[in-house]
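User: I'm preparing a small set of examples for a lab meeting where we compare how different chains pack in three dimensions. I only have the primary sequence for this one, and I'd like the structure in token form so I can line it up with the others. Please keep the answer compact; I'll paste it straight into my notes.
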Amino acid sequence: MKLRLRGGDPLKFRGDVLILGHHSDHRPLRGTAGSLDWLFNASLSRLWIQKEDLLDFGQVTLFSPQGKLPSASVILVGLGRESDLSGDLRRESYRIALKAAGGLVVQAVAVEGIPLQEQWDMEVVDDLARAMGEITDPVARQVDLYIPSPELLASARETFQTNAEHHSHQAQP
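Assistant: Understood. Below is the structure token output for the 173-residue chain.
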């Protein structure tokens, strides 16, 4: 699997699966999940009312965009309470969602970056890369990580490039 860093709106991703995360203690729905809910006429909010554990940590829900998005499917992964999320749990949520995507026939997957306590850190890239490395069966050829702002994207690309160079130097004899 190849990891690419991207900016822009993940809801415009033209590929097989879009992976979003949301916290169980954020009501109403926020960010990209909130925009998705708006596109689906609050069906996600209504589902959350009926199924209270929808956004508990590790819960995975598959949605069909029904032509409202360019992606073929959306996977929503519950992140649990925001105060409980750590780097290890973020990595685990990525792994859970990617394994769920692996149950579908996919070539390209998009993942929305998940901040910790609403603070962006560049370890989001490493957490996703490590989660990808923990999956034995490749999920897709390409995984795009969406990062919300041009400044954060530039910083993430710099960090990602530096880490990739470091790992390639370690691998040489």
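A couple of notes for your slides: The helical segments are 31-39, 43-50, 87-102, 123-133, 150-171. Residues 20 and 137 are 21 Å apart (CA to CA).

User: Perfect, thanks.
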